[in-house]
Amino acid sequence: MSNTKIRYTHLFSPFTLRGLTFENRIWVAPMCQYSATDGVPNDWHIVHLGAFAKGGAGLVLTEATAVTPEGRISLGDTGLWNDKQVDAFARINRFIADQGAVPGIQLAHAGRKASTQLPWEGGASLAPESGGWSTLAPSAVASGDLAGPVAMSEHEIGELVSAFADSARRADRAGFEVVEIHAAHGYLIHQFLSPLSNLRDDEYGGDFHRRTRLLREIVSAVRAVWPQDRPVFVRISATDWAEGGWTVDDSAALAQTLTGFGVDLIDVSSGGLTPEQQITVGPGYQVPLARHIREASPIPVAAVGLITDSAQAEQVLVDGSADAVFLGRALLREPFWPLKAAKELGAEIRWPMPYRSAKYRGSIP
């Protein structure tokens, strides 16, 4: 056995939400891969996501996965509107769970930011002859240089709510244990939240209560079909970083509002709604936003955004700014980041069985 002294860390302590326990608080942020075909994940996705599970992450959250074909950002997005997609995700989830990680999915609709080229092809609006489609939004207001959307009718809003619930049912069948509702980064639900993109004068626009109605309805619909012993997350952009837009105080008020709707964690990001945003980027730049929201309601929060080293991540939790951390680019660079962090912090962590030396019998090599 190793003589390494194991000490307690926040980062590697278990965390329980409802009936689900995460073995640590290092979680994989949703990162779009733009590599699916007809919404179906493939070998790229099993290697991409499986590497994080093998590397010791407590939660592996998939990329933004569209609840309808028209909700995709691009033709390469994953989706969850049919059984073929369920079967493909089930294979991936079995591998993730076998490594001891929790498989989770982020359900999304891109709204006016849908129907675009792949990022490496320029990201402009996709022409109809190239497979593009008409986009939907709360109001007929374009996002930057993208094609203008069509304002949604109340009937279409009702269909959208049902689509989120239907995808949540499929997520359950596919073996996901966490479902996250994507209400951030300028996509459809965020478009309803922000006064910069929601110019409606009906029950889904105007004041704070009406602009947040769609999110409340989607949360309620998902919670009603999702197993009661499994958590529901909501990802928000805490601020638009733009004058006249959604603010961190709005997010704090939203967190208070969601307290009675069965939301188990708020995933705090920011921005993405408008090209006019003015963001001051630096290490952990969104952590203060997470702390502000955590202090406003009893719902746990996760922080994300330029969290790159183990001591920094640990301090986020020690300071009480968040209950868990999502990592993105740091994990792309080092899928085994959790194993490295455990060594640096003197913590204990699961190693994949094939990597465990008989000499150590499962302790830290």
Short description:
The chain is an alpha/beta fold. It has helices spanning 43-54, 83-98, 154-173, 188-193, 208-211, 213-225, 248-258, 287-294, 310-318, 329-333, 337-345, and strands at 15-17, 20-22, 26-28, 59-66, 102-108, 136-137, 150-151, 178-183, 232-237, 265-269, 301-304, 324-327.
Overview of this protein structure:
The chain is of the alpha/beta class. The protein has a single domain (15-355), classed as TIM Barrel (Alpha-Beta Barrel). The protein contains 11 helices and 12 strands. It has helices at 43-54, 83-98, 154-173, 188-193, 208-211, 213-225, 248-258, 287-294, 310-318, 329-333, 337-345, and strands spanning 15-17, 20-22, 26-28, 59-66, 102-108, 136-137, 150-151, 178-183, 232-237, 265-269, 301-304, 324-327. The protein has an 8-stranded parallel β-barrel, surrounded by 6 helices. Strand 3, helix 1 and strand 4 form a beta-alpha-beta unit. Helix 1 (43-54) runs parallel beside helix 2, helix 3 packs parallel to helix 6 and helix 7 (248-258) packs across helix 8. The longest helix is centred in the middle third of the chain and has 20 residues, at 154-173. It is globular, with a radius of gyration of 20 Å. Residues 1-6 have low confidence and may be disordered.
Distance between the termini: 9 Å
Task: Estimate the strand proportion.
Answer: 5-15%
Q: Mean of residue pLDDT?
A: 94
Please tally the β strands and state the result: 12
Structural class: alpha/beta
Shape summary: globular
Under CATH, the topology can be stated as TIM Barrel
Q: Which stretches of 5+ consecutive residues score pLDDT under 50?
A: 1-6
**What is the CATH class?**
Alpha Beta
Can you tell me the number of structural domains?
A: 1
Radius of gyration: 20 Å
Number of helices: 11
